[in-house]
TrEMBL record:
This is 3,4-dihydroxy-2-butanone kinase. Residues 381-585 form the DhaL domain. The active site is at H226. Belongs to the dihydroxyacetone kinase (DAK) family.
């Protein structure tokens, strides 16, 4: 049965900022940007972007994988690490702040693990930074070897092999190479490494109960680093058997994920997932080295053992094998001051540190200040009740969404949506210009972008921005039902364009696309707008429920077996249907009492 986990924390919402504070007190070479809690960036204390004369190497992602990524910031490795909330991609504002803080004339390289949220957030940040005049390149790392060749658009996951890519890129940058050459070395390194993980327990997110998904005497093969289910569950075996199986999967000639053949030189990285004692990791290393040499005919030139990319308190390990030549070995052997690379730390901690101020944006800022109107128009009143009802529904649905997501994802869908809903309600009371529908939609997007990490946050930000643009294109002050329908259609098209999903991919679009189609159909047929809204909400609910029968083609659910998916609807689709239906019912009630 599930039970409340024990954690040495204060408020679960503060774990990342408090981790960063402890990190920079521990290591004299690290500093952070003064942007808590929205901006969580760790950077080298000796680097200032305007004067930095080398390529900046930046990585990051959701927290909970410590020491990755902040523990690998230091001369000869990362220049900055962008920290998202636990298991949630960092938002665009944080990534841009990190780029602006450390990038000089030589430009910067973004090293991104292959998860949809990371790709979207880092990708949008790269495009924005380029528009501000920065030179930016991005390398995606997908080193997972546990699953069959990928379906859909998700691709192979980024795992602990990313740390070796960090080291190669950081050493290349430290030599003063230009951006194109640093990116080329990082890309080549990412194509040389393969990883597979094994879990003995699932991880527990701060403030949540411990899942009982993995029973006693069982182990999970090929899991992801966010607690999502692996490729298979098996009986626990002796470590010799487990290590042999993992090496065979990584080096399989059938999948051909890594270009390693008999006679190749390799580097071995044994990674603990958070709760595995060093003794057991060393046992694994002691079995893996002769396994590579005797079973696979490989020369093992370097071995790194420790906890590099964890999954909170998960018991288990991953093995990464990288094809090596002298050039890669030279990069791995190059000196670095990154505190968690397996070398000694240097320097004394100063008595006090003052946070580095957030760098200003290079983009032109508007002087326009938005605020809540003193008196709401009828349209403003309708917007207010619909927004409040939608947000309240998401707040009430948090635990259900987390429960569904724990079975098909990383278990934080409800918590992520909850943060966005709470921010929307709070900001609406202060800032939303409710008499201006277009600007209100834009402000909803701003609230979401500020507090919601992960794929949901960036997708809903894109959703709101596209709807805002469509509404803004018409100068009429009153927004008709057809204009709302057009805005919904434009928002869905933008999410599909940038997220890569469409109908039937088992995403939030499977709720919103039927809703949009039904709304347009009923309005064009001359139905009353409120009745059309209610009918379209029913279509959204039916669409969300239908995701039980879909094979996932986007997001982390693509890694989950079909029999598990068949028992649970897509959490993102259920959330979308819930807020849409709540808004429709609130509008109907408001209309009937008006």
């Amino acid at each position: 049965m599930a039970f409340q986990s024990k954690k040495l924390i204060n408020d679960p919402n503060d774990v990342v900022t408090e981790f960063i504070e402890g990190l920079i007190e521990t290591y004299p070479g690290l500093q952070y940007l003064d942007g808590f809690p929205e901006v969580k960036v760790v950077l080298r204390a000796d680097v200032s972007g305007a004067n930095y004369d080398k390529v900046a190497v930046i990585s990051g992602g959701g927290s909970g994988h410590e020491p990755a990524h902040a523990g690998f910031v230091g001369e000869g490795m990362l220049t900055a690490a962008i920290c998202g909330d636990v298991f949630a991609s960092p938002n665009v504002d944080s990534i841009l702040a990190g780029i602006r803080a450390v990038t000089g004339p030589m430009g910067c390289l973004l090293i991104v693990k292959n998860y949809t949220g990371d790709r979207l957030n880092f990708g949008l940040s790269a495009e924005q930074a380029k528009s501000e005049g920065y030179k930016v390149e991005m390398v995606i790392v997908g080193d997972d070897c546990a699953l069959p060749p990928p379906r859909g658009i998700a691709g192979r996951r980024g795992l602990a092999g990313t740390i070796l890519v960090h080291k190669v890129a950081g050493a290349a940058a430290a030599c003063g190479l230009p951006l194109a050459d640093v990116a080329a070395e990082a890309k080549r390194a990412s194509e040389m490494v393969g990883t597979m993980g094994v879990a003995l327990s699932v991880c527990t997110l701060p403030g949540q109960v411990t899942s009982d998904r993995l029973g006693p005497g069982k182990m999970e093969l090929g899991l992801g680093i966010h607690g999502e289910p692996g490729a298979a569950v098996a009986d626990l075996q002796p470590v010799d058997v487990v290590v042999s199986h993992v090496l065979k999967e990584i080096l399989s000639s059938e999948t051909n994920y890594v270009p390693i053949t008999r006679g190749s030189r390799v580097v071995l990285l044994i990674n603990g997932l958070g709760a595995t004692p060093l003794m057991e990791l060393m046992i694994i290393a002691g079995k893996a080295v002769p396994g590579l040499q005797l079973e696979h005919g490989l020369a093992v030139d370097r071995v790194y053992t420790g906890s590099f990319m964890t999954s909170l308190d998960m018991a288990g390990f991953s093995i990464s094998v990288m094809k090596a030549d002298q050039a890669i070995l030279d990069r791995l052997d190059a000196p670095t001051k990154a505190p968690n690379w397996p070398v000694g730390a240097e320097g004394n901690r100063p008595p006090a540190k003052i946070p580095v101020p957030l760098p200003p944006s290079h983009s032109i800022q508007s002087d326009k200040t938005l605020s809540r109107p003193e008196k709401l128009s009828p349209q403003g009143h309708m917007l207010e009740v619909a927004i409040e009802a939608a947000a309240t529904e998401i707040v009430n649905l948090r635990d259900n969404l987390n429960e569904w997501d724990s079975k098909v994802g990383d278990g934080d869908c409800g918590s992520t949506m909850f943060r966005g809903a709470v921010a929307i309600v709070e900001d609406m009371k202060k800032y939303y210009p409710l008499n201006d529908p277009a600007e209100t939609v834009n402000e909803i997007g701003s609230s979401i972008r500020r507090v919601m990490g992960g794929t949901s946050g960036i997708l809903y930000s894109i959703f709101c921005k596209a709807a805002y643009a469509k509404l803004k294109a018409d100068t009429e002050s009153v927004v008709t039902a057809l204009r709302w329908a057009d805005a919904l259609e434009a928002a869905i098209a933008a999410v599909s364009k940038y997220g890569g999903a469409s109908a039937g991919y088992r995403t939030l679009l499977d709720a919103l696309i039927p809703a949009s189609s039904a709304l347009k159909e009923r309005l064009n047929a001359g139905d009353d707008p409120v009745d059309a809204f209610i009918i379209s909400a029913e279509a959204a609910s039916n669409g969300a429920e239908s995701t039980k029968h879909m094979q996932a083609q986007a997001g982390r659910s693509t890694y989950v077996p079909g029999n598990v998916l068949a028992s649970v609807p897509d959490p993102g689709a259920m959330a979308a249907a819930a807020w849409y239906r709540a808004a429709a019912l609130a509008a109907k009630e408001k209309y009937s009492t008006a």
